[in-house]
Design brief:
The complex is a heterodimer of chains A (162) and B (180). Chain A is mostly helical. Among the domains of chain A are: 3-49, no CATH class; 131-162. Helix content of chain A is 76%, strand content 0%. Chain A has 6 helices and no strands. Chain A has helices spanning 3-15, 22-30, 32-49, 59-104, 106-119, 133-155. The longest helix of chain A is centred in the middle third of the chain and has 46 residues, at 59-104. Chain A starts with a helix and ends in a 7-residue tail after the last helix. Chain B is mostly helical and 180 residues long. Chain B has one domain: Orthogonal Bundle (Rna Polymerase Sigma Factor, Chain: A), CATH 1.10.1740. Chain B has helices spanning 3-15, 20-41, 44-61, 71-90, 117-129, 133-142, 149-156, 160-179. Chain B starts with a helix and ends with a helix. The chains are: A mainly alpha (162), B mainly alpha (180). The A-B interface holds A 10-12, 14-15, 17, 36-37, 39-41, 43-45, 47-56, 59-60, 62-64, 66-68, 70 and B 19, 22-23, 26-27, 30-35, 38-39, 44, 48, 51-52, 55-56, 59, 107-110, 117, 120-121, 124, 139, 143-145, 164, 168, 171-172, 174-175, 178-179.
Chain lengths: 162, 180
């Protein structure tokens, strides 16, 4: 066997894919260059096979935590897009209503009505330094609505969990 | 795990309200994925990130997994794609094989007591970094326990003979680079 022929068998023999033929073994026993190449190939095989492969101890928990975090970030993005869409829709509807009122002359009538009402002398509230009753009622209604929405959003299990 | 067990696990992952089925899947394949990724990344932190990315893609892709191939084959394919994407994203710099000034050239075949396994692994890593992606993947995956040529061929979409030829060439290239 020549060195060229032996060269083609070095990797398959070193990896165990091929059983070394007798003429290969006798060639390697006599040829220092091919013997060194075979030893190098066998050392490389051992090094590749001996590489650590085990995942870290808490790898599964880390994957699940990462998965939940990504899922939560995805939901956050959807929530944000939903809120923006709703806000844009409300602004559009409000602008549409104003445009409609202007076109039909109702806005002018409302302005006249507000002017008329503002000329009526306001009675001072029964409590010292407080707001008028309508303003206090409307403010209270807004606060109650906000508290109700907050309670409704929070009562859903798992909502907003990372 | 045989193919019917894999399919059952996939169905449980798809229909599961909690993550316990997916945790089982990760537990079963984590060493396989981590082993390949670590051999390619050569860095624990990066291997952690890449292995997590693989399982994230597995989770996202499970609803579309048809079951034509083995689950492990499909996961190999994802590992290969993730590693190729990462390599392309990082614009890898050429790692010099020259041992550098002040360091003695190493002959991997020499019977030298000072020739450390760690140093050989370091040089192997540098040599592997210069190989084509499919050669690197084959070398990284082939030496994991229980990985068959057939699975690698299916994962890369190559004939079995081509996989064997690529592995042969990859080993030869490694040796030549270490000899240089």
């Amino acid at each position: 066997m020549t060195c060229g022929e032996a060269e083609d068998l070095i990797e398959p023999v070193a990896s165990g894919d091929v059983t070394p033929p007798a003429d290969f073994s006798s060639h390697v026993a006599e040829c220092r260059r091919c013997a060194a190449a075979l030893a190098a190939a066998e050392r490389i095989e051992r090094a590749l096979a001996g590489e650590p492969a085990a995942a870290p101890v808490h790898f599964t928990q880390a994957v699940l935590a990462s998965l939940r975090r990504r899922r939560w970030q995805h939901e956050e993005r959807i929530d944000r897009a939903f809120n923006l869409t709703i806000a844009a829709a409300i602004v559009t509807v409000a602008l549409g209503i104003v445009a409609l009122l202007n076109a039909s002359g109702v806005a002018q009538m409302l302005l006249v009505a507000i002017d008329t009402l503002s000329e009526i002398p306001q009675q001072s509230p029964p409590w010292p330094g407080g707001y008028s009753l309508p303003v206090a009622s409307i403010t209270g209604a807004f606060v109650a609505t906000a508290v109700f929405i907050w309670w409704w959003a929070e009562r859903r299990p798992g909502y907003g969990e990372p | 795990m045989d193919q019917s067990d894999e399919q059952t696990l996939v169905e449980r992952c798809r229909g599961g309200q909690d993550d316990s089925a997916f945790a089982e899947l990760v537990d079963h394949y984590k060493d396989l994925v981590y082993g390949v990724v670590y051999r390619l990344a050569r860095d624990r932190g990066q291997a952690d990130d890449l292995a997590q990315e693989v399982f994230f893609k597995v989770h996202r892709g499970l609803p579309y997994f048809r079951g034509d191939a083995r689950l492990s084959t499909w996961i190999y394919r994802i590992v290969y794609n993730v590693c190729c994407e990462e390599r392309a994203r990082r614009h890898p710099v050429e790692v010099p094989l020259d041992p550098g000034v002040g360091r003695r050239p190493i002959d991997p075949g020499a019977p030298d007591a000072a020739f450390g396994e760690l140093e050989l692994r370091d040089r192997l890593a540098r040599a592997m970094a210069g190989l084509p992606d499919n050669y690197r993947f084959l070398l990284a995956a082939h030496y994991l326990e229980g990985v068959q040529y057939e699975a690698l061929a299916a994962a890369l979409g190559l004939p079995l003979g081509t996989v064997k030829t690529h592995l042969f060439r990859a080993r030869r290239m490694l040796r030549e680079r270490l000899d240089a």
